[in-house]
Structures are given as C-alpha cells and as structure tokens.
Predict the structure of Excinuclease ABC subunit C.
Amino acid sequence: MFYTYVLQSKKDGHWYTGATNDLRERFKKHNNNKVFSTKSRGPFELVYYEACLNKDDAFVREKYLKSGQGKRYLKNRLKRSRLLTG
C-alpha cells in the first residue's frame, strides 16, 4: 500500500501534504525533524490520509490535494474536525 497524507503543524497551523509507502515511519521522520521540507515546522498532527494500491495513484492524489481544488476538498472534508485550523 501507498499513502497520501496531510499533516498539520502544531507550531504554525499550516498543512503539509505528502505520499509514502510507510506512513508510520514517515510521520516519525516529520516529527523528528528528519524531513527537509518540514524541518522547522513540527510537531505535527496527522489530520488526513488515504490508502492507494500503487505508488503512481498515491502521487497523483498528492498532486491533486496540493492544488486549489484539492485544498477546497480537504477543507470541506475536514470542516467538522477540531484539528482543522488552516
């Protein structure tokens, strides 16, 4: 399985969207400042993820969720979540 995920920074409230084949390990790396793109923004909360059967689907979905339409989809999907601030 491959995963597309959205993290929310507890520090600044901003979102980070990514894709991986090991969600638990990737989440640990984000929170331990081992990912360059999020190094100074942690700690993080996992606010959303989707499972995909193959890598290509996960990365296509990641690209969509980073788009304007994808961000609107996420905000609508998560609007009742207490974690949503961004």
